[in-house]
Structure formats: C-alpha cells, structure tokens
Amino acid sequence: MKPEEVRRLAGSAPERWRELELVHRSDDLELRVTLRHGELDGVRLSDGQRIHERGAPPSSWTVRPLEPYPTNYQWSAMLDPYELTEGVVISDVRREELFGRPVVTFVARAVTGYDPICSCCPLVFSEASQRLEYGDDWTASPGELPDGVDMALDLEVGIVVSSRDRGGRLGSWFTNEILRAA
C-alpha cells in the first residue's frame, strides 16, 4: 500500500461505516461504545458510567460534520481521520493485523499545511499543530515533541485503530478494538 492510498482510506472513512461497536483504550480511559453517525452510546468500563452524546460542537477548524465524542476532538478525528489527507508525511507503510482485523500501519509526521480538526487535540501532535495553537513564534522545548506518530487504520472502515506518539512529553496513545462494523 502506498501513502496516497492511506490518504484516500483516511479521507473515505465516514462513508465506510454506518454503525460501529468498539472498545476504546487510552492512557486514562477505557470505553465500550456503539456509534451511529451523529450518535454515541457507551459505558466507561472503570466505573460503569453511561455516556450518551448526540452531535458535536464544531471546532474553529472544522470543515466537515463531526462525530460526537466523550473526551475531545481527537475522538472525532479518529473516526474521520481526514486530517491525514494533507500536510502529513506518511512513511513505513505496512499491512498488518490488529485485534484480528486487517490494518495498514504507518508513521505520520505533520508538516506545513497540516489541518487538524482542532489544534489542541490533533491526531498528529507536532510542531505544525503547536504553531497552529500558539502562533508562528512558538518554539518547542527539548524533548517536548514526538518524532512522528505510529498509526494504524482499519482497512474495512478507515478509522484510526491505533495511535502512539514516538517520544515527546505527552507519550499519548490509544487503541480501538472494533467488535462490530456495519
């Protein structure tokens, strides 16, 4: 698979699914959710708290309708990763399997022209996203930024099913185990 094919897959994700059931895990959250475009029903696995969200408020960067989220705009971006279609260098592309499903894995590095759904919670945390958030005069402290983000997109539905910063101060990561897709 080539980087251009990864971009097309990312840009077509919303058209590839009507309903998803998944388990989302990150450094601070574990949820089991059912998603239909514009609606999220779920439960936080740590305490059983029910979550129901409809729609999502637009961010200042939004160019497409957003999926509802229980955390932040990064959730919307992982379900519609169109921000990977421009301003992102994609390398080390490989076909693999994750949670028994075929995926494409790659390293993403944001460059000039990166256009995240929201600059404060981008899929690709980077100098480009930080400059959008804080202005062109912003400079990184040593070790602050990751050297790219290891990602995986599900080959059937196109959503981000794995993301892990390569270093940096946040060390951000998440996975989505798709239990059902329609």
Describe this structure as you would to a colleague.
The protein has helices at 3-11, 13-16, 73-79, 127-134; strands spanning 19-26, 30-36, 39-44, 50-54, 88-98, 101-110, 149-154, 160-165, 173-181. It has 182 residues and is of the alpha+beta class. A nine-stranded antiparallel β-sheet has the order 4-3-2-1-9-8-7-6-5. The protein has four helices and nine strands. The protein starts with a helix and ends with a strand. Helix content is 15%, strand content 37%.
In short:
With 182 residues, this protein is of the alpha+beta class.
Could you state the order of secondary-structure elements as H and E? HHEEEEHEEHEEE
Q: At the first level of CATH, what is the class?
A: Mainly Beta
Taking the alpha carbons of the first and last residues, their distance comes to 24 Å
Roughly how much helix do the residues carry, as a percent range? Answer: 10-25%
- State the secondary-structure class: alpha+beta
Give me the number of helical elements: 4
Question: Which regions have little confidence, pLDDT < 50, spanning 5+ residues?
Answer: none
What CATH architecture would you give? Clam
On the 0-100 scale, what is the average pLDDT? 90
In what range is the share of β-strand residues? 35-45%
Compute the number of strand runs: 9
> How many structural domains are formed by the residues?
1
CATH topology label: outer membrane lipoprotein receptor (LolB), chain A
**Overall 3D geometry?**
globular
